[in-house]
Design goal:
8 helices, Rossmann fold, 3-hydroxybutyrate dehydrogenase, 2 domains, NAD(P)-bd_dom_sf, 7-stranded parallel β-sheet, alpha/beta, SDR, 264 residues, 3-OHbutyrate_DH
């Protein structure tokens, strides 16, 4: 795609102040899209991030700190995006949290939070984005699922349930918009070295009494045959492709980028 292929379009990326979301937001900005950032963090640091993206890619940005577990805050964020940019052309549902425990030990409040943020929030953003997209007969909805939307792992019941649900929601959204210029697809990453995964690496290093680099290799060896982490930039490039005309008939897919994880 050309450097201005998304010029004039607006992308809202949830959970975009770090990690995968930030990588995707930067890739979309590099194609000319204005960005609505969302996520937690120090407001001054987020402003620095906004300024950097605006200066590097000559786009406009905005920020909303909606808690993605609360429908009323999501509604406020979507209204803010509409007021600021006139509507959302590209919606990237990326916000997510994780907790690891056996089912019988899984805290109920953690289950509820994971389902709310990793699954239900995408319903709220999508239902609010679709009217504008239908009006323009163009839109791209990209849901960040996970390989855990395709296969399971022990001790991640809530995360696996939410991500499987998100893949199903993606398919339904794609079917309901099949005869429009709106597409909906899911990206299913394997291990990406985000702050979320780094916590698991740190826990592994402490548990096994090894250094951080060794813990990373052990983690990858269990699931990801390539032995390498997927990068946010690679996921961002895939998101950009989904926004292209070439991807206009890619609808309802769960596209895994996982170093061979699901191929096993």
């Amino acid at each position: 795609m050309s450097a201005s292929s998304l010029k004039g379009k607006t992308a809202l990326v949830t959970g975009s102040t770090s990690g995968i979301g930030l990588g995707i937001a930067r890739c979309l900005a590099s194609e000319g899209a204005n960005i609505v950032f969302n996520g937690f963090g120090d407001r001054q640091e987020i402003q620095i991030l906004q300024n950097a993206v605006e200066n590097e890619f000559a786009v406009k940005t905005a920020y909303h700190n909606a808690d993605m577990s609360k429908a009323i805050e999501i509604e406020a964020m979507m209204s803010f995006a509409n007021t600021t940019f006139g509507g959302i052309d590209i919606l990237v549902n990326n916000a997510g949290i994780q907790h690891v425990a056996n089912i019988e030990d899984f805290p109920v409040e953690k289950w509820d939070a994971i389902i709310a943020i990793n699954l239900t929030s995408s319903f709220h953003t999508t239902r609010l984005a679709l009217p504008y997209m239908k009006q323009k007969n163009w839109g791209r909805i990209i849901n960040l699922a996970s390989v855990h939307g395709l296969v399971a792992s022990a001790q991640k019941s809530a995360y696996v349930a939410a991500k499987h649900g998100l893949v199903g929601f993606t398919k339904t959204t794609a079917l309901e918009t099949a005869q429009t210029g709106i597409t909906c697809n899911a990206i299913c990453p394997g291990w990406v070295l985000t702050p979320l995964v780094q916590k698991q690496v740190d826990a592994r290093a402490e548990r096994d009494g090894v250094d951080n680099d060794t813990a990373k290799k052990l983690l990858l060896a269990e699931k990801q045959p390539s032995g390498e982490f997927v990068t946010p930039e690679q996921l961002g490039a895939l998101a950009v492709f989904f926004c292209s005309d070439a991807a206009s008939q890619i609808r309802g897919v769960a596209w895994n980028m996982d170093g061979g994880w699901v191929a096993q």
